[in-house]
Amino acid sequence: MIQWYNATKEGRLLSQRVANATDSVRQWWRRWLNLNRGGWKRFVCLSLVGVSLSLAIASCNTQTSDTSDSSTPANKKDAEITLVSYAVTRGAYAKIIPQFTAKWKKEHNQKVKINQSYGASGSQARAVIDGLEADVVALALDLDIAKIEQAGLIQPGWKKEAPNNAIVAKSVIALVTREDNPKRIKTWSDLAKNGIQVITANPKTSGGARWNFLALWGAVTETGGSDTQALNFTTKVFQNVPVLPRDSREASDVFFKQGQADALINYENEIILARLNGLKLPYVVPNVNISVDSPVAVVDKYADKHDVREVAEAFVQYLYTPEAQREFAKVGFRSVNPTVAKEFSKKYIPIKKLFTVQDLGGWNAVQKKFFDDGGIFDKIQTKISK
């Protein structure tokens, strides 16, 4: 039996470990091997196994202790999070996500899978509220994330949980014109001239169109004009809008596919991205403009439900690194990182006067003043329809 046991793989392994034990143990081992009769022999077999296992356990315990002192973390269970964002960020996240997951794997020895959903910002916000279990949301405007907060899915104070008040990327408003710009459209005031037609989506149904409206309004009030002057100017512009598409995608279709109007009000980043994809769109960027700020937040309820808060928060923080900010800049966004913004400065038309939603009172005040039922936009539409 002793010979059989020593011939096995386990026996050879244990014998080798025993051979590396102290001299006194080896001498004890040899004495017992010389015993070969009856009960002693059976006792020897059991003793050998017991001693060998004891030594093997001691050896294994020593190795485990050594591993625990290593700087390499132990393998963790794979993590999976879901990012819900708006359509034009897809190109940036296609580059950012592999960078983040590789970095996390290297530093935490854990694989992370990031599911992604893209669509119109307002529709994405409604989807999350209705049950799309996003762990992170990166949307086109603060108001959309605020709606998710109001639904009880995000805790108050989310703007302070990320750098830059949770604004992760920026853009401005641009005016796409026809080839060679035959109507010589260069500034906001040109849109109010007789004989000019303009396409913009309906700000009652489109988040992007709200930015367009506020850019028109602020072009007056943020350069010394009054609310009355802003109302008159904005009314004149919307008198030149032949149709109000529901969202920015439909507005683009009306302008490009149907060939209506002389100018399309759109995000600068969308135009740059289109040009990167081979569409040589002529456009101008008014030098008085609004900062189109895109926020990001962890969806607390779902991040906790899925037990992925650590990864979700780390992903949000990673979006502010120079590496991630460069990917945003490559697809047309204006970086919130000063160093990266400087690197890409030649890509963007300078803005003389840049104002924000906060300069206009903040999103809650803006929504109530302009876009709620009975607000200024409704009054403009009533006046135009008469």
3D architecture notes:
The chain has helices at residues 2-7, 9-19, 23-33, 38-68, 90-108, 121-129, 142-150, 207-221, 227-239, 248-256, 268-276, 300-305, 309-318, 322-330, 338-343, 363-371, 376-385, and strands at 79-86, 112-119, 136-138, 167-171, 173-177, 198-199, 263-267, 283-284, 288-290, 292-298, 353-355. Helix 5 links the parallel strand 1 and strand 2. Helix content is 50%, strand content 13%. The protein is globular, with a radius of gyration of 33 Å. Mean pLDDT is 85; it is low at 1-72. The protein folds into 3 domains: 2-60; 79-169 and 294-330, D-Maltodextrin-Binding Protein, domain 2; 173-290 and 356-385, 3-Layer(aba) Sandwich (D-Maltodextrin-Binding Protein, domain 2), CATH 3.40.190.10. The protein has 386 residues and is of the alpha/beta class. It has a 5-stranded mixed β-sheet with strand order 2-1-3-10-4. The chain has a 4-stranded mixed β-sheet with strand order 6-7-5-8. Strands 9-11 form a two-stranded parallel sheet. It is built from 17 helices and 11 strands.
Q: What are the defining features of this structure?
A:
Thiosulph/SO4-bd, disordered N terminus, 50% helix, 4-stranded mixed beta sheet, Sulfate ABC transporter substrate-binding protein, 5-stranded mixed beta sheet, alpha/beta, 3 domains
Question: Structural class of the helix and strand makeup?
Answer: alpha/beta
Question: In what range is the share of β-strand residues?
Answer: 5-15%
Total count of helical runs of at least 4 residues: 17
The overall strand count is 11
Provide the domain count: 3
Element order, helices and strands? Answer: HHHHEHEHEHEEEHHHEHEEEHHHHEHH
Strand line-up of the largest beta sheet: 2-1-3-10-4
Average pLDDT rating: 85
* CATH fold description of the largest domain: D-Maltodextrin-Binding Protein, domain 2
Uncertain stretches of 5 or more adjacent residues = 1-72
Taking all Cα atoms into account, the compactness measure Rg is 33 Å
Q: Which CATH class of the largest domain applies here?
A: Alpha Beta
Give the termini separation.
107 Å
CATH fourth-tier homologous superfamily of the largest domain: Periplasmic binding protein-like II
| Shape field | globular
Family: Belongs to the prokaryotic sulfate-binding protein family.
Keywords: Periplasm, Signal, Transport
Protein name: Sulfate ABC transporter substrate-binding protein
InterPro entries: Sulphate/thiosulphate_BS, Thiosulph/SO4-bd
